[in-house]
Design goal:
Elements (H helix, E strand, L loop, with lengths): L1 H9 L2 E5 L2 E5 L10 H8 L15
Antiparallel strand pairs: 1-2
């Protein structure tokens, strides 16, 4: 997911509108999710039996 978001930010997408092409770039502002989901997306520890159970600790 993170690689795809980075590609959209750097390369954007090109769409055809009428007879012209428009390039649209993207910027991610925020990712929302529960603790387990966010850990999985960012490649962090998804086992909460460890000493570090959140991104802040």
């Amino acid at each position: 997911l993170i690689n795809e978001i980075n590609k959209l930010q750097i390369n954007g997408i090109t769409i055809n509108i009428g007879n012209s092409e428009k390039k649209i770039n993207f910027a991610l502002m925020n990712i929302l999710g529960d603790n387990l989901g966010l850990h999985a997306i960012f490649g962090l520890n998804t086992s909460f039996n460890s000493n570090y159970s959140c991104r802040i600790c």
